[in-house]
DNA sequence: CGTGAGCTTGACTTGTTTCAACCAACGTGG
DNA sequence: CCACGTTGGTTGAAACAAGTCAAGCTCACG
């Protein structure tokens, strides 16, 4: 394990001899994301590190390896030819870059690093071989895929039927839940490396308006943001605003 | 084949002894959707018919069979507790009700018939068995799944970053393309059973505004709608409006 | 020390919603 | 047969949420 590989398909990748934090993280993720741990022991992988704000992969690239985020945040996004951008999903530690890469090499949307990102890649051929050997694995993989689809559906409801306040409240709570599941939140406090333009592109709003809504949230004591961290001060009220059931 | 089954999970299903149009359609779909034809010959299935405007399945139901639409249009949608609705996808002949049902029984969003819908269901256990026997099948299935995800991503861009005109133009062109792929469009003419409220729920707009945009489209000679059919009069201009590359 | 990225705030504009009234087509039951 | 409610569509006026434009601020960085 930890073998180095050329990975020619991933253009802007800088390789590192070993990713110090990854093993610790992998074990931390064992509970929530069994598949990751399983792959780690059964499959060889290569490790990569990429600085913040850089593209990890481009739409329509082909990729013979399946990448999983180990550390840091990334965003998968599509861009219209006239520059409008929509972020489809934020990728957190433990997420596949995109679940469909398990079966198909073509990348559907570009992914860029929000923070510095550490990730591992597995050879698709080896993964498929393992899959046929151990058919129960397919359920763990399909789980990841179904989650990805569920998040896409949630996004559609947010964008199609929610006000600006609701969209932003939902985004924050969604990230908070996902981090909590992975034991990456400390109580009501979580890392929050997103710039306002990330939030704007994820919620279909303008940067200016996102700024106004966030100020309003802060002023009314719902959240606190400082030093790239976010504290949920009034969870109940934020949930009420988000109209989550 | 054509066996009848109780299918207790599908509550409002009315069964029919045989679905006269299905065999013809299945062969028509052979080219475009290999998997459907393959299943038809290798797997037993049951056939169902459901009238327009009725629910086919409800969110959180569990379903041990995998349904594929044979004839008619359906819509998968989620509803917020306060009544706001978002249609996630229109299902056309040849589409899985939802691709994730291949692996998991729990239904993620409710599906309702737009027109009368004929569909077939396959037992998940039989499908899984066949899958392990013929591993190449997995690629055909993943294809369907990837398409479903691609449509979800397209929807997000429409809802998040497009104007009302663009959203509606894109919806029309998207349906037109999918029907054309299945040889279900006749030139620029296609069935168009959608009510304005379907379009509204699919594009995240209000019924009133959808009405205004459609009138405008008609007035400026882009489309013609009559008798539940739609003709694309000025394809070039409609594409320009939709900002499709 | 200048430059650019990110954030805040205010004034004004616009696309879409809301509200309302009205019409046509259709099925249903008396 | 007509009376009736329901569903679907059209149109116009007013209200509002979010966008646009603009200026000024901080901070990190080469």
Can you describe what's shown?
Two copies of one chain form a homodimer. Chain A is built from eight helices and eleven strands. Chain A has a four-stranded antiparallel sheet. The first copy, chain A, has a four-stranded antiparallel sheet with strand order 3-7-5-6. In chain A, strands 9-11-10 form a three-stranded antiparallel sheet, with no helix packed on it. In chain A, α6 crosses α7. The longest helix of chain A is centred in the middle third of the chain and has 25 residues, at 137-161. The first copy, chain A, is globular and about 55 Å long. The first copy, chain A, has two domains: 3-149, Jelly Rolls (Sandwich), CATH 2.60.120; 163-241, Arc Repressor Mutant, subunit A, CATH 1.10.10. Helix content of chain A is 40%, strand content 22%. Chain A starts with 13 loop residues before the first strand and ends with a helix. By secondary structure, the first copy, chain A, is α+β, with helices and mostly antiparallel strands. At the A-B interface, β6 and α4 of A face β6 and α4 of B. Chain A binds a DNA duplex (30 and 30 nucleotides) through α7.
For this entry, give a set of tags.
DNA-binding, 245 residues, four-stranded antiparallel beta sheet, homodimer, Arc Repressor Mutant, subunit A, disordered N terminus, Jelly Rolls, alpha+beta, 2 domains
Class based on secondary structure composition and strand pairing of chain A: alpha+beta
The number of helical elements of chain A comes to 8
What is the total tally of β strands of chain A? Answer: 11
* CATH class division of the largest domain in chain A: Mainly Beta
For the report, how would you describe the main beta sheet of chain A? 4 strands, antiparallel
Principal-axes shape call of chain A: globular
Helix content of chain A: 40-55%
